[in-house]
C-alpha cells in the first residue's frame, strides 16, 4: 500500500538517523540533533576525541552526554504507533517477531503475535482473539457511555438550575439595589422636607418674636424721649435766675412731671424664646419624620429577612415548666392550673410557667411570630443561657434579670421588662399576633403588633454578645402558637 508523502515526512521526523526506526528514549545533543539512547551510546563508544555528532559533525573534546528529550519521547509514544500502524498495514506486525498481531493479552493489556503467545513473555497468559476483545471493549464502552450520559444529564440539570438561580439572584439583588436607592432617595427627601419645615418654623417664630420686641422698643423709645425732654426742662428751670420765669415754667411742667412720676416704671420682659427650640416648635413635623425613617429602617430589615430566611421554631420539651402543656408537635403551648408529669432535667423551669425554644441565635437578622390562640396573661421575649431556671423568686422570672428581655401582657396592659425595670410601650388593643425581630448584628430587639400592617410596640437597643433563645411565660388558660414569618 502506498504511504502518503505527508505521513512519510512525519515518520522521518520521528525516526532516529542511525537506526532509521522510531525514536526509543531520544537524547538531544547540544547541536540540537536527537538519537535513540542506545544508538548514540554505540556511536560515541567507537569514537575518539574530538567526538562528533553523527548527523552534522558537531565536535566536542569531551564525550557529550545527551539530554533526555521528554517532549519528543512523548510525541513518539503518543502518536508514533497509532499513526504509523493505522496508516500503514505493515506496521500491524509484532516489533519483536515481525509476525502479524492477532491476539490480545488480557493480563498485559496488549496486542501480541502467535510467537509471543507460544514462546514469548506472554506464554501462559490469558489471551483472546481481537473480535472477542473488541466485543468486551464495546460492552465496557457502552456501560461507561451510559454512566457518562447520566452524568451529562445531571450536569445539564445542575447547569439549568444554577442558571435559573443566577437569574433569580441577579433579580433579587437588583431589587435590593432599587429598594436601597428608593430608601436613600426617600430619606434624602425627608431630610430636605424636614429641613425646610424646621426653617419655616424658625422663620415664623422669629418674625413673631421680633414683632413683639420691636413693639416694645418703639413704646419704650417714646417713653424715653418724653422722660428725656422732661429731664432737660427740669434742669433748665433749675438753672433759671429769674424767679418769676422759674415759677411760670414749673407751673407749665407740673402736670407733665406728675404724669411721668405716676406712670409705672418699665418692667424688663422675659426672654421671648425661653423654653422653646426649633424642634419643639415643629413637633408634628418631627414625629412625621421619625415615623417615616422607621418605615425605611423596616424595609431594610425586611430585605435582610428575605435573604437570610425566617426560622422555624419549636418549644424545647426539656425546658417546659410542669405548669405548661406542649401541643402540636411542640409548636403550641398552653398554661394549665395543674402540674403535668415531666421528668427532671437540668434545663427545666421548676416553678415559673416558662419554656424556651430549641433554636438559638448568635448572629444575623431573625424574626418569628407568636399567635395568641387563647387570650390571657403572657410574656414573649428572649433569654441567654445564663438566665436562672430554678427557684420561685423573681430572679428566674422572664424580664426580671439581666439575661432576659420581654414584652408582657398582664390583664390587657402591655409593658416591657428587662433587668427588673419596666417600661410602657405603645398601647394597642387587642393584640392577637406578635412579631419579634432580633437583629443581633445591629443590636436591636423589636416587638411588633402583626396585623394587616406592622405596628411597632417597643425596641430594645442592646449590644448582644452571647446567643439568645426565644423564651415564654404563660398564665393558666393562655395558649400561644409559634408561627413562621411569611408576609415580609
From TrEMBL:
The keyword tRNA-binding does not apply. Residues 292-488 form the B30.2/SPRY domain. The keyword Zinc applies. Keywords: Coiled coil, Immunity, Innate immunity, Metal-binding, Zinc, Zinc-finger. Residues 177-230 form a coiled coil. SUPFAM superfamilies: B-box zinc-binding domain, Concanavalin A-like lectins/glucanases, RING/U-box. It holds the Pfam family zf-B_box. One of its GO terms (cellular component) is cytoplasm. InterPro entries: B30.2/SPRY, B30.2/SPRY_sf, Butyrophylin_SPRY, ConA-like_dom_sf, E3_ubiq-ligase_TRIM/RNF, PRY, SPRY_dom, Znf-RING_euk. GO terms for molecular function: zinc ion binding. This is E3 ubiquitin/ISG15 ligase TRIM25-like. It comes from Erpetoichthys calabaricus (Rope fish). The gene is LOC114651653.
